């Protein structure tokens, strides 16, 4: 009769197969594209339509680019003064909801329509 510890022991062939499968999975994961496009984000400018509901939250860099490349430090100053769009902290990172961005823009320019 085998002991419970003996049930968990692998033969040399089984260990080699597991190692090969793990290495194969790592290669597959590493071959996927990385960067902004793989996370579903798109670059934004003031003339392009921003992400809609269900889209990822905007980073300060995304928002700065969307607002025609204003400095990211300006957004930080707006946050500290309470005059910019609503933001939220996710962990220690600042994120903006696209709906809040559009609502803030509508308040800034009431005579214009923002999507």
Describe how the helices and strands are arranged:
Blueprint: H1 4-8, H2 12-30, H3 60-66, H4 72-81, E1 88-90, E2 93-95, H5 98-108
Antiparallel strand pairs: 1-2
Q: β content, as a range? A: 5-15%
Average per-residue pLDDT, rounded, comes to 73
Strand order of the largest sheet: 1-2
- Uncertain stretches: 32-48
What's the order of the H and E elements? Answer: HHHHEEH
The first-level CATH class name of the domain at 43-108: Mainly Alpha
**How many strands appear in the DSSP assignment?**
2
- Percentage of residues in helical conformation: 40-55%
Computed over alpha carbons, the radius of gyration is 24 Å
User: The biggest beta sheet, please?
Assistant: 2 strands, antiparallel
Description:
45% of the residues lie in helices and 5% in strands. A hairpin with a 2-residue loop joins strand 1 (88-90) and strand 2 (93-95). The model is unreliable at 32-48 (pLDDT under 50). It is mostly helical and 115 residues long. The chain is built from five helices and two strands. The chain has helices at residues 4-8, 12-30, 60-66, 72-81, 98-108; strands at 88-90, 93-95.
């Amino acid at each position: 009769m085998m002991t419970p510890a003996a049930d968990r022991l692998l033969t040399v062939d089984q260990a080699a197969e597991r190692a090969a499968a793990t290495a194969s999975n790592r290669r597959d994961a590493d071959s996927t594209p990385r960067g902004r496009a793989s996370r579903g984000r798109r670059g934004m400018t003031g003339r392009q339509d921003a992400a809609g509901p269900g889209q990822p939250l905007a980073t300060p860099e995304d928002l700065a680019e969307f607002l025609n490349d204003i400095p990211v430090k300006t957004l930080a100053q707006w946050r500290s003064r309470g005059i910019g769009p609503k933001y939220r902290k996710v962990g220690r990172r600042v994120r903006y909801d696209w709906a809040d961005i559009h609502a803030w823009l509508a308040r800034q320019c009431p005579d214009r329509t923002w999507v």
